[in-house]
Amino acid sequence: MLVLGAAGGVGHLAVQVAKARGAYVIGTASADKHDFLRGLGTDEAIDRAADIAKEARDIDVVLDVVLDLVGGTDRLRSLDTLGPGGVLVSSLPVDFDEVTRRAAELGVRATNIVVEHERAAMTGIATLAGSGRPRAHIAGTYPLAEVAKAHMDAEAGGALGKPVLTVRPWGPS
């Protein structure tokens, strides 16, 4: 499995879940985050500034899943890393026409993921959480009044893990 944006808020959790399920995981992030990725359990780390398709092809593993948490040109280029019948799953709500067209040419699939509360999946995540994994890495804490800044920082990339909002208790101070 290739996780685009493996050091981010969703990516760092996806890496841990995939590893817990026995997947060989390759993660993309800037070079200064590769130690963090290895600490999460990634088998390989690719610099996000590199040619992802070339770097992944140099690893002797046939990929069947790409999890796209980044978008942009990485999404399209990552299609070339998939083996026959592979799938690219994107968490981003974007126009997918070019990606699905290119995927069909390569004999792979591309789709967007829609978050749904499905009991079996939630039970599986709860079981993992009960065993102490995955562990969320906190990118930083923000008071609720700075929710916009927390979103901007997360969207700018570069953070490790998830931002956390702090809320003061209700009632008189």
Write the layout of secondary structure elements.
Blueprint: E1 2-4, H1 11-20, E2 26-29, H2 34-40, E3 44-47, H3 52-57, E4 63-68, H4 72-78, E5 82-90, H5 97-106, E6 109-112, H6 119-130, E7 138-143, H7 147-156, E8 162-166
Could you explain the architecture of this structure?
The protein is 36% helix and 24% strand. The chain is an alpha/beta fold and 173 residues long. The protein folds into 2 domains: 2-135, 3-Layer(aba) Sandwich (Rossmann fold); 137-173, no CATH class. The protein has a 6-stranded parallel sheet, with helices on both faces. Strands 7-8 form a two-stranded parallel ribbon. The longest helix is centred in the last third of the chain and has 12 residues, at 119-130. It is globular, with a radius of gyration of 17 Å.
